Amino acid sequence: MYINHKVYSSHIKWIPMGTQRDMYRSCDVGPVHDDILLAKLRPGHELDMKLHAVKGIGRDHAKFSPVGTAFYRLLPKIEIRQPIEGEMAERFQKCFSPGVIKLVNIKGKLLTISFLLSTSYRDRPI
Asked: How far apart are the C-alpha atoms of 20 and 83, rounded to whole Å?
């Protein structure tokens, strides 16, 4: 489908911090299985991850059971190809989460967009 669109556990690389390089060998640190699919990406998508590992077993605590928790956040890209004014701007604003589209009248521009406030966009017709 796409080149390198699947992210596997084998793509995780260990970066030793402090004296870890002296205590562990790089072959001793890493995923147990290299063929675990972590994500499928589309063109333009990327992952920004920080991983922390603690050795433990499920008998000690449920957090060590062999399941994982992951989350992601959509950062949509919206291109406005023509000016949106008046009632259409208000209707356009209602298609998004509160705070994403702010109507401001500065020199004829009526929109400011903050993608970070967006939880996701609603695919509704205007």
From this structure: 56
> What's the token pair of residue 76?
């949509």
Q: Counting beta carbons within 10 angstroms of the beta carbon of residue 111, is it exposed (0 to 12), middle (13 to 18) or buried (19 or more)?
A: middle
Instruction: Return d(Cα 18, Cα 76) in angstroms, integer.
Output: 38
Three-state SS annotation for the chain: CCCCCEEEHHHCCCCCCCCHHHHCCHHHCCCCCCCCEEEECCCCCCCCCCCCCCCCCCCCCHHHCCCCCCCCCCCCCCCCCCCCCHHHHHHHHHCCCCCCEEEEEECCEEEEECHHHCCCCCCCCC
Q: Output the pLDDT for position 3.
A: 79
Residue 93 C-alpha from the chain's centroid: 24
> Phi, psi (5° rounding) for residue 64?
-95, 5
Q: What is the pLDDT of residues 61-106, one digit of tens each?
A: 766 666 666 666 666 666 777 777 778 878 888 887 777 777 777 6
